[in-house]
Here is the input.
Amino acid sequence: MNAFKSDLLRVLDQRGYVHQLTDGAGLDALAMAQVVPGYIGFDATAPSLHVGSLVQIMMLRRMQQTGHKPIVVMGGGTTKVGDPSGKDESRQLLSSDQINANIASIRRVFERFLTFGTGPTDAVMIDNADWLDALEYVPFLRDVGRHFTINRMLSFDSVKLRLDREQPLTFLEFNYMILQAYDFLELSRRAACRLQLGGSDQWGNIVNGIELARRIDGTHLYGVTTPLLTTADGAKMGKTAAGAVWLNGDQLPDWDYWQFWRNADDRDVGRFLRLFTDLPLDEIARLEALEGSEINAAKVALANAATALCRGEEAARTAQATAEATFSGSGIGEDLPVHVVDVPSLTIVDALVGIGFATSRGEAKRLVAGGGARVDGSPVTDEAHVIALGTDDIRLSSGKKRHGILRRA
Here is the structure.
């Protein structure tokens, strides 16, 4: 741990958010002296962000908790270009209407994590389309583009990755790093923003913005990046075999969100509690020291705290009650996914596809053959097995962690 004096950097450091700092001493002193406005940018490529963006959202929350001003920058402009960082191929281009609808949907999540308003530490949401859409091409190239060399732009990992794999990198995407640097310059002018935070893959983009502001305005800006976030088994955070873990409730049910955290690897529990919950550090230390079956209590605490932040206290309570009923052996939780069937019977294969535990009949057959399918707790290994539906709900399971209800219409 570093000996930071400001609450901002001390909290970020103690909870595991800090990977790189452009000028740690300078930022520490600034955060001691004044309210620091800081931003993170989010592109609006879908109606919801997923768990992979949650560490960035939590950094903005930590800013507000320590007396500073979070700025959420929605990429209404940059989404039209596409960030090549970490991408193997070009992103599908969206219309302005699609982007605006996505921004409106995403805002609902931020309102759970941040307090928006007009006060000195209240969060604000800004759309970079406000300035990017108004740029004139030749003046922009003359005033901003001259500060970027092709040599340096070709050295960035986001560019080298695509070129090394001989995958297309459009001129449109190649401009992204210039536009993001310009965002930082504009935000320093418009909102007195002094800090940009982001994932480690954004380090080059952040440094570009700091250098651009210094060259054009003589302004001293700062940057902080988080470590590359993967699970203990090496998987990318936010992705599972079942798909993305979306933050919006209309993209992913509360139960599935709760289960994602409940199913965390034992080795991830302490780290996730520090990053994704507001539990005190001494309580987290107690929970992560639990061993054997007792670690499950820490996982439930993680699931409850993370779900309460994103979906609300009631969602967390309902999901836990559903889990207790489901895993007690005979109960069926009320919050499980339900597949309503209007026929008296169906095969196990059709049931698995219908409830969404398999994306095709072939996948469902492999699940059954592998011993992963159960009906009311009993394994089913015959793909021709027929499930008869009566007045009572039937519990359908895929592996140990995915459960649902079959119900007769």
